Each structure stands twice: as C-alpha cells, then as structure tokens.
Fold this protein.
Amino acid sequence: MLPDIEKLLQLQTADQEIRKLREEIAELPKRIVAIEQRLAGTKAQLEKARAAAKTDEANRKKFETAIQDLQSKISKYRDQSLEVKTNEQYKALLHEIEFAQQEIRINEDRILEVMVNAEGREKQVKVAEAELKAETAEIEKEKEEARRVTAEDQKKLAEWNAKRDGLRREISEEVLRRYDRVLKFRGSGLAEVRDHKCMGCQVMLRPQTYNEVHNSEQIVFCDSCQRILYFDPAHEPKPQPVAEPVHVKRRPRPKPDATQAWFYRPDYGEFGEVLLVFTNGEGAATRCLYDMHSGRQLGDILNREGNYHQAFPEDLTDAAIRLNGFWEEEEMEGWAAEMPSAALDLLHNDLRAAQREHERPHKERPAAPAEHSAAT
Ligand SMILES: [Zn+2]
C-alpha cells in the first residue's frame, strides 16, 4: 500500500471521529433544553395548584363577609320590626329576615365545600413540591453528566484534531487537495476497490485503473466519483481448494456432521435455483434460503426443533446437492439480506466441482461414499 494511502486512511478515521464528536457536542445543549423543559412543566403544575389554593382562600373570605353582612341586615330588620305600624309591614320584614337566613345557610354550605376542597388542594401542592424537588435533583445530575460528556468530547476532539493536523503535514498537498474536495461534496474522500468495483459509487473500474490500484503504483482516482481509490489485500477472497481444477485436486467432502450445511436445489418451487443453509443449534435447527444467482435472501429464516435432517426433511430431496462452505454466524448476520459475492462465488465454484465429479465415470473416482447429493 502506498504510504500516502496509509496516511489518508488514518486521516479518514480522524475526520470521521471529529465529525462524530462535533455532532455529539452540538447535541448536548439540545438535551439540556429538553431537560429544562421537563422541569418547567412540573413548576407550572405546582404554580397551578398554589393558585387554586389561593382562590379557595379568597372565596372562603368572600363567603364569610357575606354572612357577616347578612347577619347585620337581620339585626337591622329586627330593630325595624319593633317600630312598624301595620301588620303588613311586619310580615314584609319577617320575610326579609327569613330570606337573609336562607342566604346565610347557602354561604355556610359554600364555605364547607371550599374547606373540603382545600384539603385536596393542599395534598396536590405537597405532591407537586415533592416532585419538583426530586426532579430538580435529578436534572442537576443529568446536567452535570451532560457537562462531563461534553468536556470529555472536547478533550477527545482536541486530540483528534492534533492527530489530524499531524497526518495532514505528512501527506502531499496535491493528494490532500483532492481528498478534501471530494470529502466536502461526497462525505468521504477515499473508496476501497473490491471485485473490480469502486465501493464509494459502486461503478466498475476500467481494467487499467483496476491494475493501477491493485499494484499500488500511484495514487488513482475513481473516474466516476473522483474518490481516491485503494486496495486492501485483506478483503480479497482467499483462494480455496474448491476453486482449483478438479483434475489437480479432488473436491473436499462436506462433513455430514457439520453444524452448518449448505445445499443447492435446482428446483425450489417458485424460487427455482436456490442455496439453502442449515444450522444446527441446541435442540433446534434454522434454515435460510438464498437466490442462487443474486445471493439475495429469500423469505424468512425458519427455526424448528431437532437437527436439520429431522426439522427440514422436505428440503433434502434427491435433487439437493451438498456443498462445501462455512461462515461464522456473526459474519452471516452481517450479510443482512444479501450474501457477498465472494461467498456466492465459492459456493458456485463448489457446485460446479460437485457436478463435474458427478458427471465423471465412477472408475475415475477413488473409492469414496457417493455423498454429493445425499442428505446424510
Ligand atoms: Zn467511485
């Protein structure tokens, strides 16, 4: 790998870290605002409860004053009743007194009602006060945590910035200029080459461009996206014995007791040609289906009790061809909905080898159990 490319890869990591940290730092004030909004909500509730208690108190006073007024009215009527001349005037005063007494009773009821309410209100205020206190403490803790994370991020950011500056000094100016420009417009300035493709824009490279990148002779740019191209030998599919010509080396036999077993079926209903992979787990087996040509996953992963022979007998017909192939579970989870072309190529090659083996006359094959098509 060219030294500039190695430095650029490190620079890319630094740029990504810096961007991530900046985003995280920008998020923190928003988090604090959200925290404070929550606190403001509790405060408003407490204010409301307090205001309601105040209104109750004012109402109670109003009703008490009304009662006093009515009582003084009644004694005034009583005084007047001593001086009236006619029976009718007397009756009218009695009527007024009765009316005032009725009003007093109404006000007394209202006061009682307010007092009953006040007990509930007091509880509400107390609950709201306790909530506010707890929340304030909690929020202080959260804010403190947010401040701590920000400070940590700032420190990391400063470190990455220093690292970035150092790396930039070691890369040639012309390369940096192109890297920066593409980074600005495309979000990344580098792209790996895999399977003759630029992984940045997924466009196939011209053979000459591919060779230049592959041989690490010079800095090469993708014709279509302008990213700086590099080649990582670690990502090349490793040559497998199954890919070698059959006459040189015999195809290895798939182990019948393997926990993972791949099969090819040429006739899988509506799907046609498919690859099946069974995995034996603890007391259960799973089955996953892939399209033979695109490597795309078909349908859902099935899970049944028993080993795969017991669990999926309907899949293991005479037409099923057992293939060599093993990938770690984590790796396969990483495939998501489509198996990588390297894996697909290996299975295709092994299928061809299996079919060739099958076609050859028996005498050419050394004595070995005919297992290629068996689901043993
Ligand atoms: Zn490209």
